[in-house]
Design brief:
The complex is a heterodimer of chains A (117) and B (115). With 117 residues, chain A is mostly beta strands. Helices cover 0% and strands 51% of the residues of chain A. Chain A has no helices and 11 strands. In chain A, strands 2, 4, 5, 6, 9, 10 and 11 form a 7-stranded mixed β-sheet that branches. A 4-stranded antiparallel β-sheet of chain A has the order 1-3-8-7, with no helix packed on it. Chain A starts with a strand and ends with a strand. In chain B, 0% of the residues lie in helices and 49% in strands. The N and C termini of chain B lie far apart (41 Å). In chain B, 37% of the residues are buried. The chains are: A mainly beta (117), B mainly beta (115). At the A-B interface, strand 4, strand 5 and strand 9 of A face strand 6 and strand 11 of B.
């Protein structure tokens, strides 16, 4: 079974631009969560999508948004990029149907490394 | 809000020595707790998780962790370090809502294994 894939793996943008990152979950998984990893703030939860609906949201500004398609692939978008948005963006997938998901294992992709200049 | 604190951002051990990575949680209600490992240029991989079924949790690659409510700790151990264990390790906790898909991570501990 193929793992979680993220594209692109590396990205360079300039301040003020916008960017879209893609995540394809493991086949059959319907929940996709996104995390931002930076040296200063560590790993922080962005949001989670399940069946095309945002189910949970972290504490990030509205410039960070996401969506999920009917095939469970998810995209996240960052508008008006700032230098501080430079980070590794990780997505993770689970089957998603159980309430808390504690019986599920969250599988992470390799991440997209975004550099904002 | 739930949080975890990892003591020691860098830990060095000799090959064959005991690995001990520390994690303390802050919660009045025992949460669900996790340990993840991240190898360079890779995503996170689940090592083990505490779901209240047993206080001593065994994970992959010979790692285990013990949940101690009295100490609010969930330290990760491995009896004998291997060179391949060199990586960054993260302790994580679920929020009060309990969703395991919305984790709060510690700041991480970089493990170096010396030959």
């Amino acid at each position: 079974k193929a793992g979680v894939t993220q594209t692109p793996r590396y990205l360079i943008k300039t301040r003020g631009q916008q960017v879209t990152l893609s995540c394809s979950p493991i086949s059959g998984h319907r929940s996709v969560s996104w995390y931002q990893q930076t040296p200063g703030q560590g790993l922080q939860f962005l949001f989670e999508y399940f069946s095309e609906t945002q189910r949970n949201k972290g504490n990030f500004p509205g410039r960070f948004s996401g969506r999920q398609f009917s095939n469970s692939r998810s995209e996240m978008n960052v508008s008006t990029l700032e230098l501080g948005d430079s980070a590794l963006y990780l997505c993770a997938s689970t089957p998603g149907a159980s309430g808390t998901g504690i019986k599920e294992t969250q599988y992470f992709g390799p991440g997209t490394r975004l550099l904002v200049l | 809000a739930q949080s975890v604190t990892q003591l020691g951002s860098h830990v060095s051990v000799s090959e064959g020595a005991l690995v001990l990575l520390r994690c303390n949680y802050s919660s009045s209600v025992p949460p669900y707790l996790f340990w993840y490992v991240q190898y360079p240029n890779q995503g996170l991989q689940l090592l083990l998780k505490y779901t209240s079924a047993a206080t001593l949790v065994k994970g992959i690659n010979g790692f285990e962790a013990e949940f101690k409510k009295s100490e609010t700790s969930f330290h990760l151990t491995k009896p004998s370090a291997h060179m391949s264990d060199a990586a960054e390790y993260f302790c994580a906790v679920t929020p009060v809502s309990g969703s395991a898909r919305q984790l709060t991570f510690g700041s991480g501990t970089q493990l170096t294994v010396l030959p």
